[in-house]
Amino acid sequence: MTEKLTDSERVEQIDPLLANGWAMTDGRDAIHKTFVFKNFVEAFGFMTRAAIWAEKWNHHPEWSNVYKSVDVTLTTHDADGLSALDAKLGAKLDTLAGG
Amino acid sequence: MTEKLTDSERVEQIDPLLANGWAMTDGRDAIHKTFVFKNFVEAFGFMTRAAIWAEKWNHHPEWSNVYKSVDVTLTTHDADGLSALDAKLGAKLDTLAGG
């Protein structure tokens, strides 16, 4: 799970995220997305749900929060780039955010 | 509560924070501190406790988390700088972090 994705795996696992608001991060083999909610409670509620999944899967986002906005960056330090765990967590975050 | 602190108020309210690991932020009238915990559960547990106080006081941090580290910046947008709310929240965060 923590090996860097191959080119064909990227097409299969990362491209659907890029089509759903994620973008490649400049200068890093990482993806990022900004989630915007109605207010702080909604934003932090999302982070709380995500945190439990991140810990369960032992794969944690780099993220920041300013009021109702949450910026998330996903990459796998052990793999020095994107792994299947990033694809899995990214898809989960989209689900948790409601779309 | 949301008026920018005067010089004498800064000495009284902000200086104790600066003596406890907070620092002025370059280019902004804001303070920041990095809290480091044992692991992600401890770090996010801190954020969760802090989030409830932030919402209760309607004063929210700008913050980021990478695994066991939490970077916090405090300022008051309405006041265009540091207010008493930042001093109050900063002190609370120190208490919640255990020191």
From TrEMBL, chains A, B:
It holds the Pfam family Pterin_4a. The keyword Lyase applies. Its EC number is 4.2.1.96. Gene3D superfamilies: Transcriptional coactivator/pterin dehydratase. Keywords: Lyase. It catalyses: (4aS,6R)-4a-hydroxy-L-erythro-5,6,7,8-tetrahydrobiopterin = (6R)-L-erythro-6,7-dihydrobiopterin + H2O. The keyword Cell cycle does not apply. GO terms for molecular function: 4-alpha-hydroxytetrahydrobiopterin dehydratase activity. Transmembrane segments: none annotated. NCBIfam families: PRK00823.1-3. Belongs to the pterin-4-alpha-carbinolamine dehydratase family. This is Putative pterin-4-alpha-carbinolamine dehydratase. It comes from Yoonia phaeophyticola. The lineage of its organism: Bacteria, Pseudomonadati, Pseudomonadota, Alphaproteobacteria, Rhodobacterales.
